[in-house]
Amino acid sequence: ADPKTGELVHLQSGRHWRLWNGEWYRQHTHPDGIRFEIHEALDRLYTQGFKATKVIIANRYRDLVSSYLERNTTWRGNELGEATIPRLYGLPVEFSPDAPDEPCWDVINFDLEKEPGVPKRYPYFRLFD
Questions:
Q1: Are 124 and 89 in contact (CB under 8 A)?
Q2: How far apart are CA 63 and CA 23, in angstroms?
Q3: pLDDT by 10s per residue, the chain, length 129
Q4: Which residue, 5, 82, 116, 120, could crosslink 74 as a Cys pair with Cβ 3.0–4.6 Å?
């Protein structure tokens, strides 16, 4: 552990974790890591009887994950006409603000907006045999 930065480092792998509100968050350097973490969180929501309605990813991962986002859906209804909504696992994606008054986004990786219920199409759930 680095007492100056508060990061926990696994020496053999070089993986880093940072603490926020008593919970450790892995800091990702590869898009598959954060995509896998989001996938696991979606599976947990499903088993708890919730469905995700949106994924908010920390802005520091924008460059890391942007090429993996689906961009084939347009949204009509804003004043400017159509806009492409990036999606991950079929869910709309937003990136966190770069706001100094929200320091949690320097540590946490993503947040899921959710509501009770089961999705009609569940593209992100896998059954394990």
A1: yes
A2: 25
A3: 877 777 898 888 889 999 899 899 999 999 999 999 999 999 899 889 899 999 999 999 999 999 989 876 555 555 555 567 899 988 999 999 987 888 999 999 999 999 998 766 655 554 443
A4: 82
Task: Dig out the tokens for 15 from the structure.
Answer: 């993986």
* Gap between the Cα atoms of 101 and 110, Å rounded: 17
What pTM was computed for the model?
0.81
* Sign of the alpha-carbon torsion through 77, 79, 80, 86: negative
Element (H, E) at 38: helix 31-47
